[in-house]
Amino acid sequence: MSATTKDILSRVRMMIPPLLSKFHKGQLGRVAVIGGSEDYTGAPYFSAMASAKLGCDMSHVICTPTAAQVIKSYSPNLMVHPYMRSSPSPSSPSLTTDASTEPHSLASRIIAMLSRLHVLVIGPGLGRDPLMHDTCALVITAARERGMPIVLDADALLIVQNKPELVRGYKLAVLTPNVVEFDRVTKALGIEDDGTSETGRVEKLARALGGVTVLQKGKKDFLSDGEKTMVVDWEGGRKRSGGQGDTLTGLQASDLTDEVHNAFMNIFGEVDVDGDEGDETGGAARL
Ligand SMILES: NC(=O)C1=CN([C@@H]2O[C@H](COP(=O)(O)OP(=O)(O)OC[C@H]3O[C@@H](n4cnc5c(N)ncnc54)[C@H](O)[C@@H]3O)[C@@H](O)[C@H]2O)[C@@H](O)CC1
Ligand SMILES: Nc1ncnc2c1ncn2[C@@H]1O[C@H](COP(=O)(O)OP(=O)(O)OP(=O)(O)O)[C@@H](O)[C@H]1O
């Protein structure tokens, strides 16, 4: 482990808010994960449970009804809301006239929850259904209007690459692409791979999206808002099973809740943290 990573870990320990008797339920974090569909019920569970296990008080999942039944049975910790819908199947034409398959109508129930939440995670297990994506796009706009931090991962990155204006310039958006997703998003946005360094590529994407935070996952994790960049070079485990990125989104969401965020800014705000030795350096901007 590099000196930088050791230093970061020691600071992270100081970020953990104390359990004060004055706190009431919900004050240490209310997170919702939007994801979970017919095919994927594990991803939103990994995300929401990670936020709960890190200490977030309330962890919600917003998913399709079929996924909700399954996710509810995984854990009583999670509050699971079956508000999402996938597009009607051509073999069920009667569904096409149902108002509940209209994105504004679907999004309105989710948007009504936002005042009770601190952070949204969008994407784990979302799938690629256009109705689900249109619904999420409306929720992203509403969350942005409220100034809520949003972590966008997995299939939600497709929403960003198709409609980058949803997050462009929104500094409380965090994109967490894996290597493949990173390539896909950069290509979609017309960002050329001109042989620049790995940190340079992440900075370019963050800048192209107007200063969102990009966390590119891989052998090293690169975090950048386009101006400041951190490199996490801790090797960690060698098993690359599905769900590790989902888990990371839930952890990040907990980190973005107010109490933790304020503690983070007190610790990191003014401090420069070395990235790759001899490479770009920077302080943590917001994460
Ligand atoms: N238990 C679950 O329910 C899980 C559901 N998942 C969901 O599954 C859906 C599809 O996600 P996928 O990640 O499969 O996306 P894709 O269907 O776009 O597949 C990505 C492909 O990239 C490859 N890949 C990933 N990282 C790579 C790397 N570093 N280098 C080279 N190749 C790499 C993978 O092997 C895979 O073939 C998403 O909704 C996601 O959230 C995943 O999060 C895994 C766990
Ligand atoms: N080659 C690697 N070596 C070391 N760590 C890695 C490697 N690839 C990924 N990781 C770690 O695993 C975490 C998850 O990254 P990964 O690329 O698996 O995300 P993902 O594909 O989005 O995950 P998920 O399966 O949940 O969708 C990252 O934070 C990173 O630290």
TrEMBL record:
<dbReference type="Pfam" id="PF01256">
    <property type="entry name" value="Carb_kinase"/>
</dbReference>
<feature type="binding site">
    <location>
        <begin position="178"/>
        <end position="184"/>
    </location>
    <ligand>
        <name>(6S)-NADPHX</name>
    </ligand>
</feature>
<keyword id="KW-0067">ATP-binding</keyword>
<dbReference type="GO" id="GO:0005524">
    <property type="term" value="F:ATP binding"/>
</dbReference>
<dbReference type="GO" id="GO:0047453">
    <property type="term" value="F:ATP-dependent NAD(P)H-hydrate dehydratase activity"/>
</dbReference>
<dbReference type="GO" id="GO:0110051">
    <property type="term" value="P:metabolite repair"/>
</dbReference>
<dbReference type="GO" id="GO:0005737">
    <property type="term" value="C:cytoplasm"/>
</dbReference>
<feature type="binding site">
    <location>
        <begin position="236"/>
        <end position="245"/>
    </location>
    <ligand>
        <name>ATP</name>
    </ligand>
</feature>
<feature type="binding site">
    <location>
        <position position="125"/>
    </location>
    <ligand>
        <name>(6S)-NADPHX</name>
    </ligand>
</feature>
<feature type="binding site">
    <location>
        <begin position="217"/>
        <end position="221"/>
    </location>
    <ligand>
        <name>ATP</name>
    </ligand>
</feature>
<keyword id="KW-0456">Lyase</keyword>
<feature type="binding site">
    <location>
        <position position="246"/>
    </location>
    <ligand>
        <name>(6S)-NADPHX</name>
    </ligand>
</feature>
<dbReference type="GO" id="GO:0046496">
    <property type="term" value="P:nicotinamide nucleotide metabolic process"/>
</dbReference>
<keyword id="KW-0520">NAD</keyword>
<comment type="function">
    <text>Catalyzes the dehydration of the S-form of NAD(P)HX at the expense of ATP, which is converted to ADP. Together with NAD(P)HX epimerase, which catalyzes the epimerization of the S- and R-forms, the enzyme allows the repair of both epimers of NAD(P)HX, a damaged form of NAD(P)H that is a result of enzymatic or heat-dependent hydration.</text>
</comment>
<keyword id="KW-0963">Cytoplasm</keyword>
<keyword id="KW-0547">Nucleotide-binding</keyword>
<feature type="domain" description="YjeF C-terminal">
    <location>
        <begin position="8"/>
        <end position="287"/>
    </location>
</feature>
<keyword id="KW-0597">Phosphoprotein</keyword>
<dbReference type="InterPro" id="IPR000631">
    <property type="entry name" value="CARKD"/>
</dbReference>
<protein>
    <recommendedName>
        <fullName>ATP-dependent (S)-NAD(P)H-hydrate dehydratase</fullName>
        <ecNumber>4.2.1.93</ecNumber>
    </recommendedName>
</protein>
<keyword id="KW-0521">NADP</keyword>
<comment type="similarity">
    <text>Belongs to the NnrD/CARKD family.</text>
</comment>
<dbReference type="InterPro" id="IPR029056">
    <property type="entry name" value="Ribokinase-like"/>
</dbReference>
